[in-house]
Write a structure and sequence with these properties.
This protein is α+β, with helices and mostly antiparallel strands. The protein has a single domain (2-129), classed as START domain (Alpha-D-Glucose-1,6-Bisphosphate, Chain A, domain 4). It has three helices and seven strands, in the order βααββββββα. It has helices at 14-21, 27-30, 110-129; strands at residues 2-10, 36-42, 45-50, 55-64, 69-74, 81-90, 96-105. The radius of gyration is 14 Å and the shape is globular.
Length: 130
């Protein structure tokens, strides 16, 4: 199973970042505008349209306010398994660290999914620091 691990520093408080992350139906407006162009919340799942045209159904597995961690899973298309988490850590009052981890199958999809995650992180940093 391929595992992708990305981290970045953001010049924003953990509370501000977590407020945008936990708003799972508004990520196209608040967290990753442009990277995600539409998001529809349906019960415990969301249908996400990415800027590259890919549409995915993501089941929200866990939303933990105490540790500021969101977990979701997706399947379909070229992926037989995809589980990811995004966690926010306070560095100080105005800076935070975001960790995005994704585990997926087949292994050959690690390159394309890693590229998508990198683009998502860039969009997230732009949105959160503006």
């Amino acid at each position: 199973m391929a595992s992708i691990h990305r981290e970045m520093q953001v010049a924003a408080s953990a509370e501000k970042i977590w407020d945008a992350v936990r708003d799972v139906g508004e990520i196209h407006r608040r967290l990753v505008p442009g990277f995600v162009t539409d998001c529809r919340l349906e019960g415990n799942a969301r249908t996400v349209t990415f800027g590259n045209g890919i549409v995915a159904r993501e089941v929200i597995v866990d939303l933990d306010d105490a540790v500021r961690r969101l977990v979701w899973s997706a399947s379909g298309g070229r992926l037989s398994h995809h589980n990811a988490s995004l966690q926010v850590f306070a560095e100080d009052a105005t800076h935070s660290r975001i960790v995005w981890i994704a585990d997926l199958l087949p292994d050959e999809m690690a390159g394309p999914i890693g590229t998508m995650i990198d683009e998502g992180m860039k969009a997230m940093k732009r949105a959160l620091e503006s």
